[in-house]
Design a protein that fits this description.
The longest helix is centred in the middle third of the chain and has 67 residues. A hairpin with a 5-residue loop joins strand 1 and strand 2. With about 500 residues, the protein is an alpha+beta fold. It is built from nine helices and eight strands. Helix 3 packs antiparallel against helix 4, helix 4 runs antiparallel to helix 9 and helix 7 runs antiparallel to helix 8. The strands form three sheets. A four-stranded antiparallel sheet has the order 4-5-7-8, with no helix packed on it. A two-stranded antiparallel sheet has the order 1-2.
Length: about 500
């Protein structure tokens, strides 16, 4: 029977541990993992369909018929994928969005945090394996000849040449290392989901800023048209004043209206510059290097596939990040629990030692030692109990956060669907208001030229038309912004399958 042995000073061997008897025990214990196994917390039960049906440009699946059974779709079926902003079919937006990921420094910092978290998994897995080291020592020693208990004639000067290696291994008997790997892996996945959520948020912010800018271009077009009309009205009133038909009051009113519109146009340009600078910041460029040509928002609002509520938890990266943190917290309970069990370490040393180089690497110069050590902490003043309870409370906190995140996600989608529905209704009413204001202005102009009414009636009609036109452009901008927010609430083109394994 092979044993772990060490030689005593008198040449006898003493048995320390019986290796064949120890290894089956270690193999049996290594399958033990203390602490609770992870199970995803029960969150909000998804409804069969969303309460809000949204606007006509949102594609919502029909409800499950009574007695029927739709086959549950995978998270990507009928949903946006990848570069979700391409659904708007705007080449300039696509070019800007493609610059964001390589250039944005906030996103780059989050990427590095994820890569660091991934390395932590490798750190945890390294504990599965033994550690080994080797060293070489060359020493020449001179001992005092007057040292206590010195033997007359003994050598007081000698060389010590040592070549030795050392290995140690702590078997994962209670699953502490396995739980550490679980915690690190879940943490890395949470970091990856955080990265995806930040990426989604930044792309959505860029798209929203872009549509706000183009909405201002639409507003600018309305004001430029109004300025041209007001200039013609001022010229008309000045001619009528010369002919004795109009009054100086009418000319002053026309002048005031014109300058007010010009001031509003200048204000639009100032707001546009701020959005342009915001876009430059997102793509990590100086403001002077980004100049976007004026393009009114004449795009058609695209259809957005909403999918089923049950798909939302697999498409939102913030939900995935929160759920992975629950898994990491659960693994920490196992790590804390493993501290209550003994620590067993196997170790060995072997090498060669001699006082002469010629006999250094020879059989008689060999040395070795093998052994095992078991340690159990008997008293720690309640520290392990406190750490275990702390891990359990942290798990409960993360589980509650996860449930709150899921609920907030469902409500956010409902909010965005209602936004689009209401904005679409407002847009229809606003277009009718623009048409009515235009008819009113045409009639007022006819009455004013015929001398039936004063210029004040024309002035009121012109202002009403301008205000309704600007309201219509603002509502269209808000529709596009709400569309982007809906896509963000749905998770964009991401799904849980993109998490690293």
């Amino acid at each position: 029977m092979q044993s772990l042995r060490s030689r005593t000073d008198n040449g006898n061997f003493t048995v320390k541990v019986c290796l064949p008897a120890l290894l089956p025990v270690l193999c049996l214990l290594s399958s033990c993992t203390v602490g609770p196994n992870y199970r995803r917390p029960d969150a909000v039960t998804p409804p069969p369909v969303y309460k809000e049906t949204g606007a006509p440009n949102t594609v919502v699946p029909p409800p499950n018929p009574t007695g029927g059974a739709w086959q549950p779709a995978s998270p990507s079926d009928g949903m946006l994928r990848g570069k979700w902003w391409e659904v708007y079919q705007d080449p300039q937006l696509n070019a800007l969005e493609d610059q964001l990921a390589p250039q944005n420094q906030t996103l780059h910092a989050a990427l590095q945090s994820y890569l660091a978290a991934r390395q932590q998994v490798a750190v945890a897995r390294a504990d599965y394996f033994p550690t080994a080291s080797v060293g070489v020592g060359v020493t020449h020693q001179k001992l005092s000849e007057n040292r206590p208990m010195a033997v007359n004639g003994s050598r007081s000067s000698y060389n010590d040449l040592l070549l030795a290696g050392e290995a140690s291994w702590e078997p994962d008997l209670w699953g502490r290392i396995r739980r550490s790997v679980e915690a690190a892996s879940s943490g890395a996945q949470a970091s990856a989901a955080d990265l995806a959520n930040l990426d989604l948020s930044l792309h959505a912010e860029l798209a929203q800023d872009y549509f706000e800018l183009r909405g201002l271009d639409s507003d600018s077009r309305v004001l430029q048209s109004a300025v041209a009309d007001f200039e013609r009205q001022l010229d008309l009133n000045e001619q009528l004043l010369k002919g004795g038909v109009a009054t100086e009051v009418a000319v002053a009113q026309a002048q005031t209206q014109l300058e007010t519109a010009r001031a509003q146009l200048i204000d639009i340009n100032q707001a546009r510059a701020q959005y342009e600078h915001a876009i430059a910041t997102l793509i990590n460029k100086e403001a002077r290097d980004v100049s976007l040509q004026s393009m009114p928002l004449d795009l058609v609002l695209p259809n957005v596939p909403v999918g089923l509520p049950s798909q939302l938890t697999e498409r939102r990266p913030d939900i995935a990040a929160s759920e992975r943190r629950v898994a990491a917290a659960n693994a920490q309970i196992g790590i804390a629990t493993a501290a209550f069990y003994p620590t067993i370490t196997l170790g060995g040393i072997g090498g060669f030692e001699s006082s002469h180089g010629g006999t250094w690497i020879q059989g008689p110069s060999a040395l070795w030692s093998l052994g095992a050590q078991a340690t159990e902490l008997l008293f720690d003043a309640g520290r392990r109990h406190a750490l275990t309870e702390q891990a359990r409370l942290t798990y409960e906190s993360q589980a509650s956060t996860y449930k709150a995140t899921v609920l907030a996600a469902f409500n956010e989608v409902e909010d965005r669907l209602s936004d689009l529905r209401i904005l679409q209704q407002e847009s229809v009413a606003s277009r009718r208001a623009v048409d009515a204001a235009q008819r009113s202005l045409d009639l007022s102009n006819q009455r004013y030229r015929a001398g039936v009414t004063s210029y004040l009636e024309v002035l009121i009609a012109e202002n009403a038309l301008l205000n309704n036109q600007r309201t219509a452009t603002d509502l269209k901008t808000r529709e596009f912004a709400a569309s982007v927010q809906l896509i963000r609430a749905l998770g964009g083109g991401w799904d849980i399958s993109q998490l690293p394994r």
